[in-house]
Amino acid sequence: MTSTPTLTKNQDLVLGVLKRSDAPLSAYVILDKLRDNGFRAPLQVYRALDKLLEKGLIHRLESLNAFVACAHSGESCCSHGTVAFAICNACGHVMEFHDHTVDHRLADWTKARGFKPEKTTIEIRGLCASCAA
Amino acid sequence: MTSTPTLTKNQDLVLGVLKRSDAPLSAYVILDKLRDNGFRAPLQVYRALDKLLEKGLIHRLESLNAFVACAHSGESCCSHGTVAFAICNACGHVMEFHDHTVDHRLADWTKARGFKPEKTTIEIRGLCASCAA
DNA sequence: TACAATTATGTAATGTTATTACATATGTTG
DNA sequence: CAACATATGTAATAACATTACATAATTGTA
Ligand SMILES: [Zn+2]
Ligand SMILES: [Zn+2]
Ligand SMILES: [Zn+2]
Ligand SMILES: [Zn+2]
């Protein structure tokens, strides 16, 4: 009941956990956080994550095997192209952004070779301004 | 003895397997392929992979949890910036490329925010020209 | 050569991430 | 209600990766 309707109970619980977190969470960490809400098995988490990914409400960070709430929930964040992430290796903070030029360059490359893109991952691992200081 | 010197026996075996493969391989698949060469445990593979990554002879594909031989081995492929991959979801074929403009755009973004990049992942999953036809 | 230091290897056990299979429940539609 | 689709609960297993500890090979140097 904390977020957007059209979500089932489990989906809403998982999304809530991700929204309240300031760093990406693995499926098993989410599971632990939801034990008190009746979660018992990984599949309960993975099923909710799958639906939330479909709806564009969360993202999977491939280089971390972890998940974050979309930083632009509600709007067209993911409808205007590929999303990129800058991920701090020290504090775990994630910045989500979008760059049209990058999108276009990658689209040009694939188009020139007849490659049909389905999903693009851009993840920059490093140190955020605070942690690098 | 099949490839570049300065490699140990295990490193050379693992690199050989990756070079002969036309698709990315997981660590456990590599292990299976090297049973006849005395490999018994995952760690033998992971240790060799770590060293090969350090030397820039292979790449890890984060979205697949798998590894490929560098397409530009020998030269400065990885010294001239971030490498990107187009990965076919149907046949597994991987194309490795580099785009200066993409690099610069991402560098501009991070620099503007004081983020210090350490490793950047760019992976485009989709269908190669052959498979999309 | 002898020795110490470093690097590489072998093996077992364990930890982490993700899926398959099957049963039950809930909601929607005609 | 019946039929269908969607969501959930649970157990077991598969796939990916690391820790811990012991041994061997290599390298540098007194
Ligand atoms: Zn988003
Ligand atoms: Zn940080
Ligand atoms: Zn390369
Ligand atoms: Zn293909």
UniProtKB/TrEMBL annotation, chains A, B:
Pfam families: FUR
Name of the protein described by the UniProt record: Fur family zinc uptake transcriptional regulator
Entry GO CC: cytosol
UniProt entry tagged with the keyword Repressor: yes
UniProt keyword annotations, A-Z: DNA-binding, Metal-binding, Repressor, Transcription, Transcription regulation, Zinc
Protein family membership: Belongs to the Fur family.
InterPro entries: FUR (IPR002481), Fur_C (IPR043135), WH-like_DNA-bd_sf (IPR036388), WH_DNA-bd_sf (IPR036390)
Note describing how the cofactor binds: Binds 1 zinc ion per subunit.
Cofactor(s) listed in the protein's UniProt record: Zn(2+)
SUPFAM superfamilies per record: Winged helix' DNA-binding domain (SSF46785)
Record-level GO BP terms: negative regulation of DNA-templated transcription; regulation of secondary metabolite biosynthetic process
Residues reported in the UniProt entry to bind Zn(2+): 88, 91, 128, 131
GO molecular-function term, one example from the UniProt record: transcription cis-regulatory region binding
